Amino acid sequence: MAQTTSNHTQNVSGWAAHDSSGKITPYNFKRRENGINDVTIKILYCGICHTDIHHVKNDWGITMYPVVPGHEITGIITKVGGNVTNLKVGDRAGVGCLAASCLNCEYCKEGEENYCDQLQFTYNGIFWDGSITYGGYSEFIVADYRYVVRVPENLAMDAAAPLLCAGITVYSPLKDNNLLDSPGPGPGKRIGIVGLGGLGHIAVKFGKAFGHHVTVISTSPSKEKEARDRLGADDFILSTNADQMQLKRRTLDFILDTVSAQHSLGPTLDLLKVKGTLVIVGAPEKPMDLPSFPLIFGKRAVKGSIIGGIKETQDMMDVCGKYNITCDIEVVNISQINEALDRLGKNDVKYRFVIDVAGKPSGL
Ligand SMILES: [Zn+2]
Ligand SMILES: [Zn+2]
C-alpha cells in the first residue's frame, strides 16, 4: 500500500519481517515527503519491545507484512515542516507508539490520544494518507510533530529509547494514582512491582526516585539480589512462596503488574491494603483469573493502562532528565536483531535490547 501512495517519494533502508517466520531481513521502502506538520528524524537507536515480537510473528493475527517494527525511537531532527514551532533541526527527539489520532475526540483534546478510537500506531498502522506505517528499524522516520517528544540533554540516547514505550507504560499509572511526586520527609507509599523485566525495572527506578517504599514481586528467586542491590528496591517477595505471600498480606497501597505470562490476580490482590489499587500493564493472551473475594473483602480495584499521551510522555522524559533515569540496556547492532529477538522471547536480557541503528558508539 505504501509503495503506491503518491507523496511517498523518499527511499529508506530498513529491516522488516516478511512472514510469520519472524525473520528480520533488510528491506528498502518509501516514506512520505516531510509535510508541513512533519519532522524527519535520523534514527540513532531503537529499543526492541515484546510487541515487536508479537507483530513479526503475527501472534495477534493483525500483521500487515512486510512489517518494519520499532516504537522506541531516538534520533536527531533533520527537517521540520512549516507548521512546526516547538522542534528544530538538530534537536534530540523521541518517537514512541503513536503515529496519528483523530485530534478531535474528548481523549485527544485532553492529551489522552493513546485512548483515541482512531489511534494509529508507529508501525503496522494506517496513517492519515492511507499508507501503512513503518517503525524504527530503519535509517530515518517522518513523524507528525504532535507525536514527537524532546529527549533531555543529559540522557544517553541509547538508554533513553525504551522510555518511549516501556517507560511511559509504567509512568502513566503512577501518575494516575498520585504517586509521582516525592512526598518529602517521611516515607512515601508502599508500592509493589510485579515482574522485573523491561517494564518492571523502570517502575522500580521511578518508585525510588519518587520516594516510595518499593517491593518487587517475582516468581524468580534470582531477581532478589538484582532488585535490591542494583535497582535499590526495599523489599522482595517470592510469589511462589506461600509463606512470604501470607506474611505480606495487606501491606501495599498500590501494585503495578507488568507480567505478560498467564497468572492469577487473587494472590497479588491479597497483598494490597483495603482500598488498594492493582494496575495491569502486562498483556497475557488469555483472560486472567480474577477471584471476587479479594476484591470485595478488601474494597480493592483492578485497572488497566496502555502507554500514555504525548504531553504525558514529554513530562515523563523531563522527569527522567531531572532524576537521571534511563533503562538498563544491551546495545546490539543491526546484524544481531534476529538473535536479540530470540533472546528477548526467552527473557534473556537485562533489561532491554536497543538497536544501534546508525552504527554509532553507544552513549551519544
Ligand atoms: Zn512497546
Ligand atoms: Zn481522538
UniProtKB/TrEMBL annotation:
Gene Ontology biological process: lignin biosynthetic process
Pfam family, one: ADH_zinc_N
Record's keyword terms, sorted: Metal-binding, Oxidoreductase, Zinc
InterPro entries associated with the record: ADH-like_C, ADH-like_N, ADH_Zn_CS, CAD-like, ER, GroES-like_sf, NAD(P)-bd_dom_sf
Entry-linked Gene3D superfamilies: Medium-chain alcohol dehydrogenases, catalytic domain, NAD(P)-binding Rossmann-like Domain
Keyword Endoplasmic reticulum: no
Keyword Iron: no
Cofactor: Zn(2+)
Location of the Enoyl reductase (ER) domain: 19-355
Superkingdom to which the source organism belongs: Eukaryota
PROSITE patterns named among the record's database cross-references: ADH_ZINC
Gene Ontology molecular function terms on file: metal ion binding; oxidoreductase activity
Family to which this protein belongs: Belongs to the zinc-containing alcohol dehydrogenase family.
Record-given protein name: Enoyl reductase (ER) domain-containing protein
Species in which this protein is naturally found: Penstemon smallii
